[in-house]
Amino acid sequence: MPALSEIIEVLERSYPKHLAESWDAVGLVCGDPTDDVTRVLFCVDPVEATVAEAEELGAQLIVAHHPLLLRGVHGVPADTAKGGLVHRMIRGGIALYCAHTNADSADPGVSDALAEAIGLTVRRPLDPHVPGGRTGIGRIGELPEAEPFGAFVQRVAEALPATLPGVLGAGDPDRPIRTVAVSGGAGDSHLAKAAAAGVDAYVTADLRHHPAGEHLAAAGGAPALVGLTHWASEWPWCRQASAIVGAAFAGNVDSHVSTRCTDPWTVRASQQGAP
């Protein structure tokens, strides 16, 4: 059975740490690199629900997209939320490894997984690290054939795990959609890139009111927008990373994708409209 260090080596070949943004915190958070690993859980968020799922599965490793300790800390006491998780994982013999912006920019990476889930053929990065390169943030792809924007929004909704906020579209429902930009995670900082690329639609998460409104108001046929929750936009990456580890250690490591929704929104009120 492989050691934790061997699994990390495979992950870092696919998601090189040098691709991470300078402000990011990626890599091994806790765990002994010499320990054996027979079962791995892949998830977006290292939170209580996914740590509990790892315990129930008997996993020795959690591979998460989001860092647990993104900002500098001076301690991890067990009576704090994140410190408590660290202590819980160490006591349970569970290591935690995080691949964040390095997985966003890798080829393939987070946005490739999102593009594949909604049926796009990827052509290039939305914001490449170097002109003509294959790594970078977001992806631009194509549908097999054009379809109305309303149908495209439904396609996206059916391709991704359900969340209470759901999937929102902004644009003419009859507009033909063929070329699409995607960016897993919060992507409204790349609205100008999507517009400059001349795509028909842009799919991303955490779209804010003013940037989205100003984008749609711009002259020149700005791309229609599809808004997702952050968690749903990045969840397809879990399947991608799981397949990489599963293929590298076939027969020796059980690779599981988390089935627990860690999107923070849990209540949706019905509205009758103002009087």
Structure report:
With 275 residues, the chain is of the alpha/beta class. Helix content is 33%, strand content 24%. The chain contains 9 helices and 11 strands. The protein is globular, with a radius of gyration of 20 Å. 42% of the residues are buried.
Could you list some keywords that capture this structure?
275 residues, alpha/beta, six-stranded mixed β-sheet, five-stranded mixed β-sheet, globular
Give a topology summary:
Blueprint: H1 4-14, E1 27-30, E2 39-43, H2 48-57, E3 61-64, H3 81-91, E4 95-98, H4 101-105, H5 110-117, E5 121-128, E6 136-148, H6 149-159, E7 168-170, E8 176-186, H7 191-197, E9 201-205, H8 209-217, E10 224-228, H9 230-248, E11 254-257
Parallel strand pairs: 2-3, 2-11, 3-4, 8-9, 9-10
Antiparallel strand pairs: 1-4, 5-6, 6-8, 7-10
Compact overview of the structure:
This protein is α/β, with parallel strands linked by helices and 275 residues long.
Low-confidence stretches are none
End-to-end CA span: 65 Å
* SS field, number of helical segments: 9
The major pleated sheet works out as: 6 strands, mixed
User: Per the principal axes of the C-alpha atoms, what is the gross shape?
Assistant: globular
Number of strands: 11
In terms of DSSP E residues, the strand content is: 15-25%
- Give the mean pLDDT: 96
Determine the fraction of residues in helical runs and give it as a percent range: 25-40%
Strand order of the largest sheet: 5-6-8-9-10-7
Q: Structural class of the secondary structure composition?
A: alpha/beta
Give the topology string: H per helix, E per strand.
HEEHEHEHHEEHEEHEHEHE
Radius of gyration: 20 Å
